[in-house]
Amino acid sequence: MSVTIKDVAKAAGVSVASVSRALNGHDSVTPETRQRIVEVAERLRYMPNGAARSLITQRTQTVGAVLPDLHGEFFSELIRGMDAAARARGLHLLVSSSHGSASEVGEVLRALRGRVDGVLIMSPHADAGTLAENLPAALPTVLMNTRVGGSDYLSLSIDNYGGACAMVEHLVQCGHRRIAFVAGPPNNFDADERLRGYRDALAKQRPKQAPQVLQGDFSEESGYRAGLDVSRLDPRPDAVFAANDMMAIGCLFALKEAGLDVPGDIALAGFDDIPIARFVSPPLTTVRVRIADLGAQALERLASVIDGRSQPRLARELECSLVARQSSGARPHADTS
């Protein structure tokens, strides 16, 4: 038979109410009594009933995360960071993905109602109307890399724009004149900001050089297709800057298949610094996003709101840093423009 709260109370010589208060962290129990109850509960291997505890605390001890996808190293690292922070706080993490539209985001949010104490949202389709219609007003919510105009929601994002500007500046300093860009999917916050950074930095660093943008969707396949297109261009760019590492890696394979040497014939750079980026050949120059930290800090911010702690500001932005590796190697050029 399973051990009940009554068994713990009897063995500890206290009331059932005292056991409940002690195990739920109430201040009305003395430290000595709490310690005795905890020791008895551990010795008896008492497992609290989750449903009963939720009725008492009005908490599910669960937080939700709505992501645009669960595939690839970026989301693996993001979830790892969120999960580690959740476990450190004794919380469970419920992850769901929404792929195609605002209506799918709404379906996921409605499914989470009553099941979570708060929700993290990263989605290009999470507009203000969708959130207002499908999220209870009192539910703690943190947006990650998600643009919602005029939002009162807490948000955490990375400096996509600044990171892209830094990469273009680096490529120019390496001696590259014609810099092409492989863009991410349209209407995506990260992709839009990285494209904006590329355009603005190129206009500043190479004012006579027109932007050269190839469309991608953040997948390796789209990067591969872009790489094939680049290999056929005449004149060919000196460098390719892909809006994420997965596309850069796909582009790398395409360029090598076309008989081009990276960085000897054409330089290459990405964005995110996913774990595999340092192990491809040549190692990939990229903009480092501390992806696991993004997930962990978003979870910490959400947990603070759930616990009733105020936040100093609605929006926070995490810095990126440039990581120069062999793929962007400098090539001397006579500057004729």
Describe the secondary structure blueprint for this structure:
Layout (H helix, E strand, L loop, with lengths): L4 H8 L3 H8 L7 H14 L5 H8 L4 E6 L5 H16 L3 E6 L4 H11 L5 E4 L6 H7 L6 E4 L9 E5 L1 H14 L5 E5 L5 H17 L6 E4 L4 H13 L6 E4 L2 H13 L9 E3 L16 E3 L2 H16 L8 E4 L2 E3 L14
Helix pairs in contact: 1-2, 1-3, 5-12, 6-7, 8-9, 10-11
Offer a few descriptive terms.
337 residues; alpha/beta; 434 Repressor (Amino-terminal Domain); Rossmann fold; 3 domains; 6-stranded parallel β-sheet; 4-stranded parallel β-sheet; 12 helices; disordered C terminus; transcription regulation; LacI family DNA-binding transcriptional regulator; DNA binding; transcription
What features would you describe in this structure?
By secondary structure, the chain is α/β, with parallel strands linked by helices. The protein folds into three domains: 5-57, 434 Repressor (Amino-terminal Domain) (Orthogonal Bundle), CATH 1.10.260.40; 62-158 and 291-318, 3-Layer(aba) Sandwich (Rossmann fold), CATH 3.40.50; 160-289 and 322-328, Rossmann fold. 43% of the residues lie in helices and 15% in strands. The strands form three sheets. It has a six-stranded parallel beta sheet with strand order 2-1-3-4-5-11, with helices on both faces. Helix 1 (5-12) crosses helix 2 (16-23), helix 1 (5-12) packs across helix 3 and helix 8 (160-173) runs parallel beside helix 9. The termini are far apart.
